[in-house]
């Protein structure tokens, strides 16, 4: 099934070179793939996977091992961001 995978801020460096400008790529994933399984091949440091959204809805860290997506979903990940 096809989903859109988006990485923001410093995490865009983990996308393929050609996708870094748009910060997203389309992925073909198994229907039973969890969020953790989808992001594993990208090698994101676990400490940097802070805010995880599926179609704009926050996914709690304890649910990322079991939460699956559906066709056309958008998975977005933000690192911790500090500001003032």
Instruction: Calculate the mean pLDDT score and round it.
Output: 95
> Residue ranges: pLDDT <50 for 5 or more in a row?
none
Described by strand count, sense and barrel closure, the largest sheet is: 5 strands, mixed
CATH topology: Ubiquitin-like (UB roll)
Structure summary, number of beta strands: 5
CATH class (first level) name: Alpha Beta
Q: Helical stretch count?
A: 1
Helix-strand pattern, N to C?
EEHEEE
Helix/strand/pairing class, anyone? mainly beta
Rg (CA only): 12 Å
Shape: globular
Domains, number: 1
| CATH evolutionary superfamily | Beta-grasp domain
Rounded to the nearest angstrom, the distance between the terminal CA atoms is 40 Å
Helical proportion, percent range: under 10%
User: DSSP strand (E) fraction?
Assistant: 25-35%
Strand line-up in the sheet with most strands: 2-1-5-3-4
What does this structure look like?
The chain is mainly beta. It contains 1 helix and 5 strands, in the order ββαβββ. It has a 5-stranded mixed sheet, with no helix packed on it. The protein is globular and about 35 Å long.
């Amino acid at each position: 099934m096809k989903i859109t995978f988006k990485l923001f801020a410093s995490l865009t460096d983990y996308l393929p070179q050609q996708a870094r400008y748009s910060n997203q790529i389309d992925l073909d994933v198994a229907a039973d793939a969890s969020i953790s399984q989808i992001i594993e091949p990208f090698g994101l440091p676990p400490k940097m996977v802070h805010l995880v959204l599926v179609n704009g809805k926050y996914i709690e860290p304890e649910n990322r091992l079991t939460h699956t997506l559906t066709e056309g979903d958008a998975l977005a990940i933000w690192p911790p961001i500090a500001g003032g």
